[in-house]
Please model this.
Amino acid sequence: EAVARRAESLLWPVPQVEALEDLAQTAASLGRDHVRILDAQHRVIVESLPDSEANAYVWIVPPSGTGLNSPIIGSFIFSLPTLRAMARDQASSGPGVIFGQFLEQFPPDSEWVLVRRIEEPWGNRLVFEATESRPTSVTTPVVSALAEAPETIQMRLVQLLPGDHASSQPDTNTDFQSITLPIGDAAAPLGYVQLTRQLTLSHRALATTQRSLVLASLAAMLLSAVVGFVVSGTLTAPLQDLAAATRMMSRGDLSVRAQVRGGSELEQVARQFNAMAETLQNNFAQLRQERDALRRFVADASHELRTPITALKNFNELLQGPAAADEAARAEFLAESQQQIERLEWITRNLLNLSRLDAGLATLDLETHDVGEILEAAVAPFRPQADEKGIELSLLVPDTGSEVYCDRPRIELALSNILDNALRHTPAGGQIEVGAELQAGVARLWVHDSGPGIPPEHRPHIFKRFYHIDNEGTGLGLAIVHSIVNAHEGRVYLDENVEQGCRFVIELKLDKSHADPLHL
Model:
């Protein structure tokens, strides 16, 4: 556009060929382009030299204010090949014939500046070098150097004479970019400026680099999309699995578990979810067991209470009927009714004790007591019954005095319940041994009878409420023993290493110095 604006003033009213040539060559030199200035019919008026002919110039700068009377006035840039030609013409034609005439047009104090255009991979670099004043003969160093330069470059004056139109054509084997702009009004132009630029190696490399960058950008975008899709899938898949597991759990399926995968945070969330699900499943299973146990307890308690209540009802009906006038029958029925009332009282009292012990509501009066005294107090009430059945009831107490830390009445009750079972199941002439031993801060109290023993299939259930091996008893005695010992943080178990009968063992802490709970 700048060249077109400058050329407009040089085309009207008459084309100034010399000035147009200067303009074309200057624009070509600075822009590294091939410049053509065309008329309105697209005919070439002037044209710049090919790029290979203008890599070095001499810029002749006359003093300020100096006027020149020459047909080539204003043409002060010459290529080195042109000056070489002038120098050789001077050498062949004699001093001053051509070169001298040319130099005489410039004042003696004109400055000569050598301009070199150095091609670099990414553009041109212009180097300005000041030289000596005007050369006067072929022997002048600058002129001699020009004359001796190699002749591989075409020798031609940068500026063309009027009517001498350039005819250089671009190499058809080289890539070019061309643009044409109108000079003056686009609707009725005075002419045209055509700029043609050769795509040299640097330009082609730049174009290749640009294409590579575009392809690399597209590849990077595609790769980013793929990586984003994979990463998003890696992140969302575990969350989707966790959401699905949550939905299944909300429908009541507590066995569902989330897949443990993904990064550390997602893996931790999945593990925490699985731990929560495991806890919920265990808690609900425990609640179901307790619910089932409560149902069984209510059913068993109803059964146990129904027996004495039914007996009392029958006795009452008999006393109101035929037995009302029979004194002996009345006395017998009243005695039986008293036994059933005592049985009801025993059942209700022990059920209350069991409930309070299991709920942790029972308060233990813990003190240090002598082990021998506890055993003697528990055995004494059963001696008459043992003597009546011919059962040998023996007591083994440690020789040295020993103490145990416990609620004495409740431990005596536990021993009494075990002894009651032993007396019921030991045949006449049998033996029952009650004893104690001390070891590693633990007191072991035992009751060993010579009865028939407990079948293996019943042993895992003997401490459950209302569990019967036979029709005797209420099924609460051993359950009460188990609850009392657990409240003392002790242990009760059936020793299976005996050859005959049953041997029940109760383990308790000896004193306060061994107050840590036993490992059950």
Summary: Residues 264-320 form the longest helix (57 residues). The radius of gyration is 62 Å. The chain has a mean pLDDT of 74. Residues 2-198 form one domain.
